[in-house]
Structures are given as structure tokens and as C-alpha cells.
């Protein structure tokens, strides 16, 4: 199994490379993506923390959420 990738760090690196090269055409989109991933990761960590506080596994939590919203 390979090590997890820090998506935010990768995007930060790409943004820095584009800034350094003067190629800023993609920077705005990368900054948006970086912020979106950072927010998603932060929220996922909050959910994971809450799951463990209630003593549930991620699978149990997922099933519970699906049952609440009526998803198969």
C-alpha cells in the first residue's frame, strides 16, 4: 500500500511552480481547487471525529446516513 497523498501540498507546490515560472494562467483554477480540497478534507476530519465519538465505524455511519436520506 502506498503512502497517502497530501492533495493540498501537491496543489500548493504546483501553484508555487506556476508563480515562479510566470505562467499564471492556471493559478486561479488551482487556487480554487486547493481551497475546495482543503475545505473538504477539514469537514471530513470533523465527521470522522464525530463518528468515533459515537463509537461507530465509518461503514455504520455511512449506512446510517444513507438510511436517513433514503438512498440505496
Topology:
Layout lengths: L6 H15 L5 H27 L4 H12 L3
Overall description:
With 72 residues, the protein is mostly helical. It has one domain. 75% of the residues lie in helices and 0% in strands. It has 3 helices and no strands. It is elongated, with a radius of gyration of 17 Å. The two termini are 30 Å apart.
Question: What kind of assembly state do the chains in view correspond to?
Answer: single chain
Number of helices: 3
- Ranges where pLDDT stays below 50 over 5 or more residues in a row are none
Query: How much of the sequence is in beta strands?
Result: under 5%
Order of helices and strands: HHH
Q: Please identify the structural class as seen in this structure.
A: mainly alpha
Number of domains: 1
Number of strands: 0
Distance between the termini: 30 Å
Q: How can the largest sheet be summarized?
A: none
Short characterization:
With 72 residues, the protein is an all-alpha fold.
Give structural attributes.
72 residues; mainly alpha; 75% helix; 0% strand; elongated
Amino acid at each position: 500500500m502506498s503512502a497517502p497523498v497530501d492533495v493540498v501540498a501537491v496543489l500548493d507546490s504546483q501553484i508555487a511552480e506556476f508563480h515562479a515560472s510566470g505562467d499564471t494562467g492556471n493559478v486561479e483554477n488551482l487556487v480554487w481547487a486547493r481551497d475546495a480540497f482543503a475545505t473538504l478534507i477539514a469537514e471530513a476530519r470533523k465527521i470522522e471525529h464525530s463518528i468515533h465519538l459515537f463509537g461507530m465505524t465509518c461503514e455504520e455511519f455511512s449506512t446510517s446516513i444513507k438510511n436517513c436520506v433514503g438512498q440505496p
